[in-house]
Design a protein that fits this description.
Length: 255
């Protein structure tokens, strides 16, 4: 089966769900849109509009629909990048727009899940509000650390957006069958996973900044470090904050 192998258009930074599932679903859409005059940025904006039916589904308590739309947005997230690469329209603005609207979609998705849980009386409003707020905050702060800290390697495994979204989709589906504890456990596991990677990156950066000034040359072969930051003479001024475009991950590096 084709789903058991990576899609030919997969990028090295793609997560496993994107590589083995999402790309197979988004590629036919990209192929169709390549025959039109639609631009990558227009696709990015169009995908963000999925937050409207997602919010409506949350208001009416359709938690499985919220999860399905969130997963659909994750699948279609690869379309703008595929079009940009095919039409040679890659740009830093496109990458910024894509990342910004991804945060918007993910945040609205978690809020919609919370609305659905409250509407269906699966969880109390204070507990749901706390869980939703904590999840959105951890998402935003952890990604800020990824974009800022020079050391971008995850602790054990990267909390890539494609995997996290797929897990939330599975959790939402199981919630309809088994109860609210499924989505609660899913979100807690996702938050712990992200916090672990965030703390690991911060501590790694802290250890580096505490090193003597003359030894602040990042070692060779350290995963996640841009090549321009290693093996430079101590006499040179080494920036510990490289250009952000070198550090963008989770499929946002120039789309």
């Amino acid at each position: 089966m084709k789903f058991l192998k990576a899609h030919p258009s997969s990028k090295p930074k793609d997560g496993p769900v994107s590589r083995y599932l999402n790309r197979w679903l988004s590629a036919p859409v990209s192929t169709f849109l390549l025959k039109t005059k639609i631009t990558p940025n227009q696709v990015t904006i169009a995908i963000s509009l999925l937050t409207v039916p997602m919010l409506v589904a949350g208001i009416y308590g359709y938690i499985i629909v919220v999860g399905l739309i969130l997963q659909l947005a994750s699948v279609l997230d690869g379309v703008d990048g595929e079009i940009a690469r095919s039409k040679h329209l890659k740009s830093e603005f496109g990458a910024l727009l894509d990342t910004t609207l991804d945060y918007w979609i993910d945040s609205i998705g978690i809020m919609s899940l919370g609305l659905a849980l409250i509407e269906e009386d699966m969880l109390s409003a204070p507990l749901t509000l706390s869980l939703v707020t904590f999840t959105v905050a951890v998402r935003l702060i952890s990604q800020f650390v990824v974009k800022t800290a020079p050391y971008t390697k995850a602790h054990i495994v990267g909390d890539t957006r494609d995997v996290v979204t797929f897990l939330i989709f599975i959790g939402a589906t199981l919630t309809e069958l088994l109860g609210s504890w499924c989505i609660v456990v899913t979100l807690l596991l996702v938050n712990i996973w992200r916090l672990d990677n965030m703390v690991y990156r911060i501590l790694t950066f802290w250890r580096f900044t505490r090193a003597p000034v003359e030894s602040k040359t990042l070692p060779l072969g350290l995963p996640g470090i841009p090549s321009g930051m290693v093996s430079q003479p101590p006499s040179q001024e080494i920036s510990i904050f490289p250009e952000s475009s070198e550090l963008l991950d989770n499929n946002h590096s120039l789309r």
